Amino acid sequence: MARRKVAMDGNAAAAYVAHATNEVIAIYPITPSSTIGEIADEKSAKGQKNIWGQIPSVTEMQSEGGAAGAVHGALTAGSLTTTFTASQGLLLMIPNMYKIAGELTPTVFYVTARSLAAHALSIFCDHSDVMSVRSTGFAILFAASVQEVMDLALIAQAATLETRVPFVFAFDGFRTSHEVQKIEELTFDDMRALLNEEFIAAHRRRALTPDCPTLKGTAQNPDVFFQARETNTPFYARTPAVVKDVLARFTRQAGRRYWLFDYVGAPGADRIIIIMGSGAGAVEETVEQMNKAGEKVGMVNVRLYRPFSVDDFMSALPKTVKSIAVLDRTKEPGAIGEPLYVDVRSAIGEAMEKGTAPFKTWPAIVGGRYGLGSKEFNPCMVHAVFKNLARADKERKNHFVVGIEEDITASSLPLDACYSAENVENFRGVFFGLGSDGTVGANKNSIKIIGDLTDYYVQAYFVYDSKKAGSRTTSHLRFGKDPIKSTYLIQKANFVACHNFSFLEKYDLLSVAEENAVFLLASPYGKDEVWQHLPRAVQQAIIDKKLVFYVLKAFDLAEGIGLGPRINTIMQTAFFAISKIVSVDKAVASIKASIKKTYGSKGEKIVAMNIESVDKALQAIEKVAVPSAAGSKLAMA
């Protein structure tokens, strides 16, 4: 059966599977998982049904603890039930999680991994929340991309029913939850094929009901508690094998192949990185580039983190490996090392003692931290980790950090800022806007239009701080002929747009532009007068980088139409007209269709004004004649 290819973000992919495979959904909003609940609630409000023809019940509770309690109760009654959360919200669910796991009750908790508030609160990504629940008894399955969110969400649902072990299904907050990619959408038939009705029926038979009384929630004394606690060991022991079987069935159904531990790289690699979550994309790109340059490196992408299968992990390692770096996206103060690092050391130690390791001599194993609070993690940092592995034993850093300058204990790795593994064949556009000016929404529409009207792979990621409205936003758009693994910000753009003229005085926007890139500016000045109003540094960058420069008096145009400061559709139209990614006629038709969908509820007048802005924008784009380097008159410093 042909499957649709659609552009969506990770939260939309999660909501699609969760709503289709559950009957009861208890929610409480917390960034960055809130959108999953909103989408699920909207689906049920519109009467959309799950794969069994039922409309799932979606209820917002008064807290995350209440949501977890509602999930526990609905599960005990035999319903297929889920919830979505992150960070402090996940911590409030811990008491119920221990009970759900202790009672061997199948469910999937969707977690958009986010920092826990420690020295400060952060709404952005790391794995501290997920790591805080690894002792609850929940299995932990990680997705590293939007496509994996779609696929592994279904795999987690099938596996939890077959094992009776509840699952935390985790993916990185913002970097995956809010990243838009063009993915293959699973069908309801795919879901029905993977979910075994026998195990669903077994779950219902275990429900508390007066028709078949059973006992749950007892108190136990020292005479039996220990013995009873050990009875679930076989369930966890068989979980990796069950997940592998589900993965194999998924491959036969959908064609995509996943492993518990995915190895990528040279068969004879001597250095490898072990990582989980979205950072795997940046590592994979770097591995591919380094191997093309003649080096022998590799990586292991951890998917099933709990239960940790030592045998499957060891089978993923190349027998030639001499040094290993384990990267954790969390900090556990006072521990020997971060959680994944400790697990890898233990796994290799056990395998070496039993003689089941693929290598005869111990590899050097070092651990490092990266990406806390969504700190950037890109190929130059990955390259620094591999360079550290290549050092002599006495010079190799352990317990390092990468991506920041840590000058307290000097644990950071030096970076080669010029190193890049980005695909230069891709379109790479960076758009600077102001929170609530519509730039982010317009770019979301743009990437979906490109995804719909072309065969390109697409990716869009949006950077904005916790202040949101009124602060600067940066939209990163990539698309090209090959799958996009670049889970990091664009380092060199071939298209830069500035939607707020005042930014030129405040920020070095053109540092991201590569030579011969296009620069589009929303300006109060036309093509003949804008040059003299640019800051000197901006003029110099335009000349030095040989930028193709366009201006658009977008605010004047919007004001004249009656849109006030909302220039998003005007700048969106200019982007398509200049870039010619798709024919202007098709792009304009799609923009107008999205305007009707987005603003239809606000009345015909708003729709008409936005459509008028599209037509007028096409006539208002002006190309600026940039002075030559020799004859230019730069503004005063």
Query: From the helix content, strand content and strand pairing, which structural class follows?
Result: alpha/beta
Task: Report Rg.
Answer: 26 Å
Dominant shape = globular
Q: Largest sheet, if any?
A: 9 strands, mixed
**Beginning-to-end CA distance, first to last residue:** 63 Å
- Give me the side-by-side strand order of the main sheet: 1-8-17-18-16-19-20-21-22
DSSP summary, beta strand count: 22
Unreliable residue runs: none
Mean pLDDT: 94
Secondary structure tally, helices: 22
Q: Level of helix content? A: 25-40%
Q: Beta-strand percentage?
A: 15-25%
Short description, anyone?
With 637 residues, the chain is an alpha/beta fold.
Description of the structure:
With 637 residues, the chain is α/β, with parallel strands linked by helices. The protein is built from 22 helices and 22 strands. Strands 1-8-17-18-16-19-20-21-22 form a 9-stranded mixed β-sheet, sandwiched between helices. The protein has a 7-stranded mixed β-sheet with strand order 3-2-4-5-7-6-12, with helices on both faces. α15 links the parallel β14 and β15. The longest helix is centred in the middle third of the chain and has 22 residues.
